[in-house]
């Protein structure tokens, strides 16, 4: 992996977010030529400049911009080898109440990334998607699904050299806006913890694992794949109990499902399963338009069954505690 990223010029859209920052820190270990953090959040970029510039000088660049602005992307992508596309609206409820904005950013913004990458001869584009793109029941998941479709189809755009692939995450533990910081805030400030439904289950992935997935996908991608790490399942009520035990006494309040929420999550559809391969730590869904037996992946086998988060064994409370501790290190 180190040899792949060494001496490369890398740009991360949404680079000032939790995942973007963590990607930057990990990639710096591989001695890239440069890393550009492209983001619409001016304050976060300013803070990151103070964090990275003193130690890394001009190796880390800070680009203020919006993926909805195609001209800005053209300038930003000049001379870039690898783009990791993480900029999007990710909150289910906000996308549900603001669907036009979700479409503009998650779909049209992704189309701009594709066009700019092709025009500037970017070598590879890795799109960070969500498990909510599998059989979506909400606006966010639907926009992520269509963004995946655009990314995969881009591999068949005429005379182009850019390789496009996707990664699907579950809920990334401990990132800004995720459930663990929310529960912690509720406990410490209000002595309550709000639960939508005690039976709800979610796939959880640590930030470290999410970063490994993105970087591994960058190395393995040949064009049009969807990479999915195998993820443990957490029951939301158990998670609340562990958070209360860890951060202080609080009363649980059940508020019911929010608009667009599902009781369980899926990582792939039955149709996708028919063209999916399984390794020890991840799944690879190959595109419908591409015929390959993945002979280079001798440890991968065809997927014959897949389970949603309601059909899988959930982590014990002790295992959840270890997951939280690992995420908060």
Number of domains: 1
- Provide the CATH architecture: 3-Layer(aba) Sandwich
Rg over C-alpha atoms, rounded to the nearest angstrom: 20 Å
Q: What is the straight-line distance between the termini?
A: 24 Å
Number of helices, where a helix is a run of at least 4 consecutive DSSP H or I residues: 12
The amount of helix comes to: 40-55%
Given the C-alpha coordinates, what overall shape results? globular
In terms of DSSP E residues, the strand content is: 15-25%
Q: Say how many strands there are.
A: 15
Brief write-up:
Helix content is 40%, strand content 20%.
Structure description:
This protein has helices at residues 2-5, 18-28, 42-56, 70-76, 92-97, 99-119, 139-153, 179-190, 207-220, 236-247, 270-273, 317-327, and strands at 9-13, 34-39, 60-64, 82-85, 124-130, 163-169, 171-173, 192-195, 201-206, 226-229, 233-235, 251-254, 276-278, 282-285, 301-302. The mean pLDDT is 92. The chain has a ten-stranded mixed beta sheet with strand order 3-2-1-4-5-6-10-14-13-15, with helices on both faces. Strands 7-9-11 form a three-stranded mixed beta sheet. A two-stranded parallel ribbon has the order 8-12. The chain has one domain (2-170, 205-231, 266-306): Rossmann fold (3-Layer(aba) Sandwich). The chain is globular, with a radius of gyration of 20 Å. It is of the alpha/beta class and 329 residues long. Helix 6 packs parallel to helix 7 and helix 8 crosses helix 10 (236-247). The longest helix has 21 residues, at 99-119. The protein starts with a helix and ends with a helix. Strand 5 (124-130), helix 7 and strand 6 form a beta-alpha-beta unit.
């Amino acid at each position: 992996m180190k040899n792949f990223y060494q001496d490369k010029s890398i740009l991360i859209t949404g680079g000032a977010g939790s995942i973007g920052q963590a990607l930057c820190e990990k990639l710096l270990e591989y001695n890239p030529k440069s890393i550009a953090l492209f983001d619409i959040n001016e304050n976060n970029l300013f803070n990151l400049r103070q964090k990275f510039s003193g130690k890394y000088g001009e190796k880390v660049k800070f680009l203020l911009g919006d993926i909805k602005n195609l001209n800005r992307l053209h300038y930003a992508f000049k001379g870039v080898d690898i783009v990791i596309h993480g900029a999007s609206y990710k909150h289910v409820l906000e996308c549900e109440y603001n669907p036009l904005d979700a479409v503009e950013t998650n779909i049209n913004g992704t189309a701009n990334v594709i066009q700019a990458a092709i025009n500037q001869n970017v070598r590879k584009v890795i799109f960070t998607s969500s498990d909510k793109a599998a059989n979506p029941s909400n606006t966010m998941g639907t926009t992520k699904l269509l963004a995946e479709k655009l990314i995969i189809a881009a591999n068949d755009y005429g005379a182009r050299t850019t390789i496009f692939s996707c990664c699907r995450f579950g809920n990334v533990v401990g990132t800004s806006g995720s459930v663990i910081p929310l529960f912690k805030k509720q406990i410490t400030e209000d002595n309550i913890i709000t639960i939508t439904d005690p039976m709800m289950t979610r796939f959880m992935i640590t930030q470290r694992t999410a970063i490994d997935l993105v970087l591994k996908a960058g190395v393995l991608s040949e064009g049009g794949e969807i990479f999915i790490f195998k993820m443990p399942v957490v029951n939301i009520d158990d998670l609340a109990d562990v958070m209360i035990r860890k951060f202080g006494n609080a009363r649980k309040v059940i508020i019911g499902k929010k608009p667009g929420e599902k009781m369980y999550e899926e990582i792939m559809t039955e149709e996708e399963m028919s063209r999916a391969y399984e390794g020890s730590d991840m799944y690879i869904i190959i595109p419908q338009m591409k015929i390959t037996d993945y002979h280079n992946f001798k440890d991968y086998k065809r997927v014959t069954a897949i389970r949603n988060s309601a059909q899988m064994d959930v982590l014990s409370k002790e295992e959840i505690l270890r997951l939280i501790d690992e995420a908060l290190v």
